[in-house]
Amino acid sequence: MAKRVAVVLAGCGVFDGTELHEASAVLVHLSRAGAQAELYAPNIPQMHVVDHVKGQPTPEQRNVLVESARIARGNIKDLATLDVKGLDALIIPGGFGVAKNLSTWATQGKNCSVSKEVESVLRAFHAAHKPIGLCCISPVLAAKIFPGCEVTVGHDTECEQWPYAKTAEAMKELGCKHINSQVSEVHVDTRNLLVTTSAFMCNAPIHHIHDGVGSMVREVLRLA
């Protein structure tokens, strides 16, 4: 039987939702591997809406589930209905929506809170010993919820190629172990069944991002 993988989205658009290229890469690689993706998003208001041309917030108000449905081509469910029993794995792509809508990392960093629904889902997969794939900024969710876990968001030294490297330092302060890696690489925490990769935390050509996400998907399915 095809493996069933929950993919949790956080809106639509890198600056206020899910990073579309990462979500698309996840879905393409799952499809190529013969796995069945089941898409979910929380039915909540977005933290804010960003004009992606100007890079500035607007007065608009949007809903995370409704916006995520754009990526899912309408085939998406409320995260509150997710049942871990019928699923083999969980993947959460990145994008600022993870740090704004699924958690408060964007405004509070290591002192953030993770939304109750998202934390409940992560804990359910963890307790069931089912693998969790996280890319880009989404490994911060694991760093917050699972003390002592091993993750990667790329490198921990800021430079032109790694503009968000301070994220790694904040994660270390939460007690997790950060593993430096290249954009095409993944890190597998075998104890916690966490598979992480840096994706757009790195200034890299888009096909390298796509390949790194593919490596994450393959490892998640191997563990499922």
From TrEMBL:
<protein>
    <submittedName>
        <fullName>GAL3B protein</fullName>
    </submittedName>
</protein>
<dbReference type="InterPro" id="IPR029062">
    <property type="entry name" value="Class_I_gatase-like"/>
</dbReference>
